[in-house]
Specification:
There is one protein chain. This protein is of the alpha+beta class and 244 residues long. Strands 2, 3, 4, 5 and 6 form a five-stranded antiparallel beta sheet that branches. Strands 1, 7, 8 and 9 form a four-stranded antiparallel beta sheet that branches.
């Protein structure tokens, strides 16, 4: 009797170990299968046209007499407004900004004796227009202002002097472009699954990606904000599980 019980106990223990080994092994295989995945990228692009233009027209006047400098800056402002009107730019979309008056004699790091013009006055007329084509065409004729005696300058000697063209319709494009990028990513994953003799499973992880606006003509020195035409791009990164 004792021997029979010992044999039965040994059989039960053996079966238990075998069963546990099967479950552990099966779980290990399933875990390894879950590690099989492919990472793919899907790209969507659209060519768009700018729908907003910002054009800072900054001009300067100098004189040893403050009132003369003020009169000259007012004359220049009038010339700028007349220039915009001649080229069908709505002056209601232009406003005076950034009036700056500099007294050279008041500069603690400069010469106390004025050897040139003492007063420097600068001002900006900022054009904000929803007609970027008209702004672009007008900017090509800015030499008319120079011929009229308007001294144009960049802010503090740096920064853009021409128009900046913006595209503000990104929100309307997002749903369609995300769907296209996702579809392209899945097509790439399906082809990989075929080539690797696997079956494409569900999504393991997904990253929608960031929308970027690039210059349409991508060359060295070309900046996106200087072009009327732009390229909107999004790249989605998706990981798909591979079965089989």
């Amino acid at each position: 009797m004792t021997l029979d019980r010992t044999i039965v106990g040994a059989v039960v223990i053996g079966l238990g170990l075998a069963a546990s080994g099967w479950f552990v092994g099966h779980g290990f295989l399933r875990g390894r299968a879950a590690d099989r995945y492919v990472t793919v990228k899907g790209v969507a692009e659209r060519e768009v046209r700018a729908n907003l233009a910002l054009w800072p027209l900054r001009f300067v006047a100098t004189s040893d007499d403050l009132s003369r400098a003020q009169a000259e800056i007012a004359r220049s402002a009038g010339q700028v407004y007349a220039f915009l009107q001649r080229h069908n730019i709505d002056t209601a979309q232009a406003e005076l900004q950034e009036l700056e008056v500099t007294d050279v004699m008041a500069n603690p790091f400069g010469e106390r004796t004025a050897t040139g013009n003492r007063y420097i006055i600068s001002q900006t007329i900022m054009v904000r227009s929803d007609q970027p084509d008209a702004v672009f065409a007008t900017s090509q004729r800015v030499g008319e202002l120079v011929n009229a005696g308007v001294v144009l300058t960049a802010r503090m000697g740096y920064g853009p002097t021409g128009p900046t063209f913006l595209f503000t319709g990104l929100t309307d494009l997002k749903p369609e472009m995300i769907a296209e990028a996702t579809a392209n990513a899945r097509a790439a994953a399906e082809q990989f699954a075929i080539d690797s003799r696997s079956r494409l499973g569900g999504i393991r992880q997904a990253n929608q990606g960031v929308f970027v606006i690039l210059p349409r003509d991508q060359a060295q020195g070309i900046q996106e904000e200087q072009q009327l035409f732009k390229t909107v791009r999004v790249v989605s990164t998706i990981e798909y599980v591979l079965d089989g």
